[in-house]
Amino acid sequence: MKPHPASAAAQGLLNCHSCGLLSKNVPNASDRCPRCGTHLHMRKPNSLTRTWALLIAAFILYIPANLLPVMHTASIIYEEDDTIMSGVIYLWTSGSWPLAILVFCASVTVPLAKLIALTILAITAQRKSTWRQQERTKLYRMVEFVGRWSMLDIFVVALMVGLVHFQSLATISAGPGALAFASVVVITMFAAMSFDPRLIWDPEPKDDD
């Protein structure tokens, strides 16, 4: 039988979210880290509730983000509204397929993958699952890492606007889809921050795991 390592919570220890200092959980003591002064929690308060609320909001906004125009192009001879996908198709058919792939990955695939990954983490944590805990921890770290580069999505849209403006001297304005898209990016980042990865390790593994 393989022994299971004891968790910090089982030993009455608290880990600081900010500086990583491990402290003794003393009841009725100041709930602040003695090194950096950050509030300490055994687990983030209402972590799953807040994560679910933010995830649902992000899923709802993901629909208009991809269906509504993200930019409106107007010139002397024409006016046009472009969604993210119509922009990808335009770039692909005009021969700029590397940029089309970049826009598709950064604006469609990555946000959806983050939402699916956080949903899997939230469901398994809520069900107190012991399924692939190490892999789920790595998945959370990956979501956190990608979150640092989430503004790449906004950058790509801005790049598209700049290219169209440069090539056609057209007037460009942001559409309602751009606001929904930016909201999805920001809300997904907050959802990842709200999720407490220590919940993955709270369920005691079974002896035959």
Q: How many runs of DSSP E, i.e. beta strands?
A: 5
How far apart are the first and last residues' alpha carbons, in Å?
10 Å
Run of helices and strands: EEHEEHHHHEH
Query: Can you count the helices?
Result: 6
Question: Would you write up a description of this structure?
Answer:
With 209 residues, this protein is mainly alpha-helical. Helix content is 55%, strand content 9%. It contains six helices and five strands. A three-stranded antiparallel beta sheet has the order 4-3-5. The longest helix has 30 residues.
Features:
two-stranded antiparallel sheet, elongated, 209 residues, 6 helices, mainly alpha
In short:
The chain has 209 residues and is mainly α.
Describe the secondary structure blueprint for this structure.
Elements: E1 13-15, E2 22-24, H1 47-67, E3 71-74, E4 79-82, H2 84-93, H3 97-126, H4 133-148, H5 151-168, E5 171-174, H6 176-194
Antiparallel strand pairs: 1-2, 3-4, 3-5
